[in-house]
Design brief:
It contains two helices and eight strands. The protein starts with a helix and ends with a strand. By secondary structure, it is α+β, with helices and mostly antiparallel strands.
Length: 142
């Protein structure tokens, strides 16, 4: 007789199963409302303050390269000058650049610009950031 008290009846077990199914259905709906993408393993959690600017040159007798902070080399602040292409680590923002060439006795100035920034994406446990590097193409067309 004691065994009968410990074992639930078929009706009780059926009611428990039905309640579990209904409850699970409710939980599934709530989970869908809060679904998010897992955070990637390689996630940079802070916004960068600098990025790389690549300077490409070629196509003539290069005399000098100048890189300016600002969208216009005419109004910008000179941040670097040199004599060969390179990659510079610079604070985020807009940059312009010039390359002066001698070609067939003429002075030619190539001009280009780009912006250094970052992108971000939100995940379950936070935001991940990625640098947006830049490039200035100061090569002469052949």
């Amino acid at each position: 007789m004691m065994t009968a008290l410990l074992r639930p009846s078929f009706a009780t077990r059926a009611a428990l199963v039905l309640a579990s199914v209904v409850l699970a259905g409710c939980l599934d709906e709530d989970e869908d409302a809060y679904e998010c993408e897992p955070t990637p393993l390689l996630c940079t959690r802070y916004a960068p303050s600098s990025a790389d600017l690549t300077v490409q040159v070629g196509g003539g007798n290069l005399q000098e390269i100048k890189v300016y902070r600002g969208p216009s080399y005419e109004d910008g602040t000179l941040v670097w000058s040199g004599f060969s292409g390179t990659t510079l680590r610079l604070p985020l923002g807009e940059y312009s650049a010039t390359a002066t060439y001698l070609l067939d006795g003429k002075t030619i100035v190539a001009v280009d610009g780009d912006e250094l920034g970052y992108t971000s994406e939100d995940y379950c446990t936070g935001t991940c950031y990625e640098e947006d590097d830049g490039m200035v193409d100061l090569r002469l067309e052949e």
